C-alpha cells in the first residue's frame, strides 16, 4: 500500500464535508438587507402620509404570539383572516395535501362568536394549547366541534395527532 490509498469511506467523508461547506450559507434567514421601506426616511413613499400599513381588511396586525405559534403551520401565510361581525365562523379541519392544516389557519372574531371546526378528512382533533380550555376527540370526516369565545385575547390550538406536522391554528378574539 502507498500513502495515497483511497477507499470508499474516505471519498464519502470528503464528499459529505464538501457538501456541508457548499450548502452552509443556504439555510436560515440571512435576509436580503431590505428593511421594508422604499425610501431613505423609512416611509413607503405613499403620498397619503401613511406608513403603508394595512387598513384592516386582512385582519389587521398579527399578534406576535400568533405569528410565533404559526411560523411552521401549514396554510399560514402571515395574516389573520378577519371574520369579525359574524356570529358564527367555520374552520375546516384537515385541509391541504396531505390533510394537515386548518383552513384558515388564523381568524379574528368578535367576543361571543361561535367557531365551528368541520372535519374534511379523518383522524384529526382540535386542542387549545393557550388562551382557552377546549378539546375534541380524534374524529373522522363530517364531524363538527364548536366553541364560543367569551373572552378577548389570543387562543392558540392544534390538531393533537398532527401538531408536529404543522397542523396549528389561532383565533384572535376582540
From TrEMBL:
GO molecular function, one term: metal ion binding
Keyword rRNA processing: no
Protein name: Halocyanin domain-containing protein
Keywords for the protein's UniProt record, in alphabetical order: Copper, Metal-binding
Biased composition (Low complexity): 44-56
UniProt signal peptide: none
Compositionally skewed regions (Acidic residues) per UniProt: 31-43
Family annotation (InterPro entries): BlueCu_1 (IPR000923), Cupredoxin (IPR008972), Halocyanin (IPR017533)
A Pfam short name: Copper-bind
Organism of origin: Halovenus rubra
Source species, domain of life: Archaea
Region (Disordered): 23-99
Blue (type 1) copper domain: residues covered: 90-174
